[in-house]
Amino acid sequence: MSEENKRRSKRSKGSKKKSKKKSKILLFLKITFLLFIIIGFIGVGIAAGLVSAALKDVKPIDPSRIPLMLDENSFIYDNKGNVLEKIQRDGLRTIVKYEEVDDDLKNAFISTEDRTFFEHHGFNYKRLVGAVIQGIKSGGRIKGTSTITQQLARNIYLSEIKSERSLTRKIKEAYYAIQLEKSLQKEQIFEAYLNTIYLGSGAYGVQAAAQTYFSKDAKDLDLVESALIAGITQSPRRHSPFITKKKEDVDEDDYVLDDSDEIYTIVFNESCLDRYKDVLFFMRTTNSITEKQYEEAKNVDLKTKLKPGKLKNTNISSFFTDLVKDEVIDALTIELDIAKEEARNMLYTQGLKIYSTLDLDMQTNLENIYADNKNFPQLQSIRKDKQGNILKAVKSNGKTIGYSIVLYKQENIISKDGDLIIPKGDFKYADNGDLIFLKNKRLDFISLKEKGKLVGIKVKVMDSYKFDDKKDMYMYKGNTVKIPPQYKSYDKNNNLIVASEFLKSNPNFFKKDSNGNILISKNNYSISSKGIIQPQSSTVIIDYRTGEIKALIGGRNIKGQKQFNRALSPRQPGSAIKPLSVFTPAIDSKEWTEASIIDDIPHYDANGRRWPRNWYGKSDPKHKGYWGLTTLREALQHSMNVPAVILAERLGISTCIEYLKKMGISSIVESGASTDTNSAAMGLGGMTKGISPLELTSAYGSLANAGIHIKPFSFTKVTDRDGNIILENKPQKNYVVSPQVAYIMTDMLRSGVEEGGTGGRARLKNMHVAGKTGTTSDNYDAWFVGYTPYYVAGVWIGNDLQIDLPNGSRLSAELWKKIMTKMHEGLEEKNFEKPEGIIRVAIDKESGKLPTELSSKDPRGSTVRNYYFIAGTQPTEYDDVHVEAVICAESGKLATEYCPGDVIGNQVFIKRPIPYNPEEHGGYIPTDYQYEVPKEYCDIHTSNFNTNTPIENLPIGTIVLPNGTRIYPDGTKLLIDGTIVYPDGTVKSPLDNTNINKNPETNNPNSNDDVVDSDDDSLIDSND
Ligand SMILES: [Zn+2]
The Penicillin-binding protein transpeptidase domain covers which part of the protein (predicted)? Predict the structure, then answer.
């Protein structure tokens, strides 16, 4: 004992002297009473009155129900039967049968706790009396008087008053012990005992203890392990073989057994040694072990035997098992018609076995990819102010009107000493000395209201960020500033008034630095101690044929249970909604096919505003913002916005919503101030709430699964402790579209990945992929959702706050590829299954019709493609967009009869079914406009009589006079200035030429709405 400890123990001894005397008297009284009871039981009857008073409210017991009364923790298994988690609330327990327990363990308990257990009738009177006398002699408490039966009675019937030392409790305990002995065999009592005793570290019963200390089943315990466990009973806290310590409390002398947890370390508990040796001694005394066993066991190094068990598989995060628990509770509530709290209780206490859908290998692979920060983007190039605080654009009517701070740089708000800095200018003083914190500065004021009335104000520190040395950004949540409620109020401008009385009575609440800034001391405010890395991400992988969730992760670098699960939280889907909301219903209508044509030209919203913009128009919207005639297949492949909006409008918003719902999407807002009943939401994914990664992934699964949506689920069945099935998850199927429609969609989505579309970065080496990117306005969300012939997976990346991401959807497609490459290792390469009734037809992609000879002569190269069709929907008409025209090479326009034969030739052009005039659309020119057949005729060769015609080309018989005038064989004169004098005397001046038209290429209206365009807040405008 150290000097310090000696002094301390002396001091406490001194102060306890008086009370010790008192307790001695009390003890003596108690013992006397107890003796009376005992005497009463053996027939003298003196205490009969007391006994009957104590027993007047005991309930009759049914010992056969003992196993059912015991809380038993439930298990979650993966799809191969590996334990993912032992669900526990207060402790762990798994029931074992008497026969399953080895003799060493039985003997260890019997020798130590109750040697005459198999002989007595609930009591060991001899031992009791002996203990009492010993207790009186030594002045200590009565020890070791309880038989195993009594201990059992106490554990199961008197758990609430277990620690009470009342006479009534002793009488009740005796009564129950007698009842147990009367109705149960000794073996049954012993079995119940082994399953109920508390053995430290949250373990109830020998099975839980065996798992906790040795990671094995009770039946496999050897002598050393059995003795160690039996030794715990006397004082679980003191004799437990190991202790769990907070990391900062671990001493140098501590022998560390397990350091895998982030917060706790398991260390060996030296003080279990003495008791362990006692148990061995008792076992030897009762001849349960030989002398040789005894000597050997005494010398075993216990540290080497211990192997702390894990409550859960620590290699995986808790997002999935949390989801399983929630789903089981919900299912129990419905299936058994019980309250949620009761269902929760069942989960914690009823020994349920939950068979989950998780594939541990897939999940582990996913966790490993998520653990590597290199797989995620970094946020260094985001918009910041001069001080390094992160900004977000403030918009009004789609225009950026300014920026506001969305996240403070932590060193700007917290000083080196840990004080919160409120800079001069963010506060002021009132005349009466009150301190006023200005709104929208470093502090956030949250009004707490009840029934619309202000009942309090919460003052919060703004969120902040820090970069670590690897340049990863972490966000820290700001918490409360401690100012008691009575001192807080608002002024008329909603600034916060802190009453001067508070400041006077708490002079240490803040100090001021030399610059006049307020420094609130660190004891008076808090921010989260652990930062959350940004950007965040989530991924869901589902076997779309069964609906089983195979792997799921709801955040990166996040430990602990019940964490915010981003896989279940709706986010804006952006373009990832398009295949589901517009393309699938379009194909399903049979009025549209892969080859249907939409003209990608300026489109206008209800207010006449040019909307939406396409992602490819950014650099030069006048010439690159629209692509012109487009098939649906191309429109999806390249994630074109105008065609998606046009489809949404033509189909009708209610049709879009209907299909989304069929695919299991539950977060569509249809009423209220802000709804999803518009083409911005349905065509471009700018939704009110958004869609969760789980639901969006599962919705894509319906296209992968031949048009049948299966509701995703996390467990297949749940059994009770006896193995009876109480819940079973049968796939809930919902017909969405025919296999043929689904196949067409798959083909279109495949083109986006495998044929140079926006999802090219998700392409896998040895597996076909159909999928879609999604990026939302301002790059807050980046998605890739796609499927292979095996799985559907959705990846989302975004920040927890609205901070834009660099590089848009590229990030998600790349991460998707990394994940799915791993998931498909060793799987046989195959193609998507093609249903009957699908035909492949060569079409022309400008007209969407059957190709003609002209289709292959398109100036950009042949526009003939092979597209898939549902049989019967293929085109029957021929390409009428490609036209052939005779062009004068000199003017590049339609040839006239006057154009010389050697400069004219046939060329192929396109001719829009609905003519487009750039002048009517602010001068925007779709990229295919240059291939339109010219509308003008040659303005160089406007008649036979042309001064440009070389002399050698003039008709035979023409006379050229010295002044240059030409006299043609018919008598017509052409003067050098171009004036024509016909034989009948009429004169045509060269200025009289009416054949000249404006050339659109050189006469762009000089529109000045470019300024508006650069800030055009089309909802979704970037998709790469
Ligand atoms: Zn010409």
Answer: 538-820
Instruction: Extract the runs of DSSP E, i.e. beta strands, from 496-596.
Output: 496-498, 510-512, 518-520, 525-527, 532-534, 536-543, 548-553
Residue from 443, 433, 380 nearest 804 by CA: 380
d(CA 280, CA 284): 6
C-alpha dihedral sign at 801, 807, 810, 814? negative
**pLDDT tens per residue, range 505-521:** 988 888 998 999 999 99
Q: What is the pLDDT of residues 519-554, one digit of tens each?
A: 999 889 999 888 999 999 999 999 999 999 999 999
* Closest listed residue to residue 593, CA positions, set 835, 838, 772: 838
148 Cα: distance to centroid of ligand 1 (angstroms): 115
Residues bordering ligand 1, an ion, CB closer than 5 Å:
888, 890-891, 899, 938, 940-941
103-117 as b/e: b if 16+ CB within 10 A: ebbbbbbbbbbbbeb
110: CA distance to ligand 1 center in Å?
A: 116
Q: Is residue 220 part of a domain?
A: yes
Q: Using the 3D structure, point to which of 648, 669, 691 is the last residue of a domain.
A: 691
State the Cα–Cα distance between residues 679 and 685, nearest whole angstrom. Answer: 9
Could you report the per-residue pLDDT of 794-842, keeping only the tens digit for each? 999 999 988 888 776 688 999 999 999 999 999 999 999 999 999 999 9
Other Cβ atoms closer than 10 A to 311 = 15
The CA 905 to ligand 1 mean position distance, Å, reads 10
Does residue 317 contact residue 224 with C-beta atoms inside 8 Å? Answer: no
Please give the C-alpha separations between residue 675 and each of 411, 605, 648, 687, 689, in angstroms, as whole numbers: 40, 17, 15, 8, 9
Report how far apart the first and last C-alpha atoms of the chain are (Å, whole number).
71
User: Measured in angstroms, how far is the CA atom of residue 914 from the centroid of ligand 1?
Assistant: 28
Q: What is the DSSP letter of 707?
A: T
Pair (523, 580) in one structural domain: no
Task: For Cα atoms 996, 999, 1000, give the angle at the middle one, nearest 5 degrees.
Answer: 150
Question: Are residues 152 and 285 located together in one domain of the fold?
Answer: yes
CA of residue 355 to ligand 1 center, whole Å: 81
* Bond into 236 cis (ω within 30): no
Q: Is 38 helix (H, G, I), strand (E, B) or coil?
A: helix
Residue 109 lies in a domain: yes
Query: What distance in angstroms lies between residue 909's CA and the mean position of ligand 1's atoms?
Result: 18
Residue 503 lies in a domain: yes
The domain in which residue 103 lies consists of: 89-241+272-299
Measure 948 CA to ligand 1 centroid, in angstroms: 11
Return the half-sphere exposure (C-beta side, CA atoms, 13 A cut-off) of residue 226: 26
CA of 893 to the centre of ligand 1 (A): 7
Which three-class secondary structure state does DSSP give residue 1009? coil
Global confidence as pTM: 0.80
**Amino acid at residue number 756:** G
Q: Are residues 96 and 233 in the same domain?
A: yes
Distance of CA 943 from the midpoint of ligand 1 (Å): 10
Q: How far is the CA of 979 from the centre of ligand 1 (A)?
A: 19
Q: Could you tell me the distance, in angstroms and rounded to a whole number, from the CA of residue 951 to the centre of ligand 1? A: 17
Contacts of 626 (CB under 8 A, 6+ apart): 600, 601, 602, 614, 617, 642, 924, 925, 926, 927
Contact 306, 266 (CB under 8 A): no
Percent of residues in the chain assigned helix, strand, coil, to nearest 5: 35, 20, 45
Q: How confident is the model over 38-80, as pLDDT tens digits?
A: 665 665 454 566 667 667 666 777 777 777 777 788 999 999 9
Structure tokens at 378: 């970094």
CB contact burial 959-977 (16+ within 10 A = b; e otherwise): eeeeeeebebeeebbbbee
Ligand 1 centroid to residue 938 C-alpha, Å: 5
Tell how far the Cα of 890 is from the centroid of ligand 1, in angstroms.
6
| Residues 505 and 622 reside in one and the same domain | no
Residue 233 within a domain = yes
